[in-house]
Amino acid sequence: MFPDNPQKKHVVYTMPRVMIVKTHKGHYAKLIMENIYKDSPANPDRTNKPGYITFRYSIQMDGSTNLNIP
């Protein structure tokens, strides 16, 4: 993606990522992974430390599929 900038190689850019899961009890949950770097930098590069997941989630306990997250 950035061949002229070695600090930008192997950086995850496609955030946020959305995952929908169905629990074993039949409820639905929505997870929005917003960042995977420490301090959630807006423009990450290889100097940012990975492994710090920032996410939001919503669980529908009434069985519906309405998973709006404010």
Q: What would you say this structure looks like, in words?
A:
This protein has 70 residues and is mainly β. 0% of the residues lie in helices and 39% in strands. The chain has strands spanning 17-22, 28-37, 50-60. A 3-stranded antiparallel β-sheet has the order 1-2-3, with no helix packed on it. The chain is elongated. The mean pLDDT is 81.
Structural class: mainly beta
- Distance between the ends: 32 Å
How many DSSP helices? 0
Radius of gyration in whole Å, from Cα? 16 Å
**Major β-sheet strand ordering:** 1-2-3
Could you report the average pLDDT, rounded to the nearest whole number? 81
Describe the main β-sheet briefly. 3 strands, antiparallel
User: How much strand?
Assistant: 35-45%
Low-confidence stretches: none
Order of helices and strands: EEE
- The helicity comes to under 10%
Count every beta strand, where a strand is a DSSP E run of 2 or more residues.
3
- What is the approximate shape? elongated
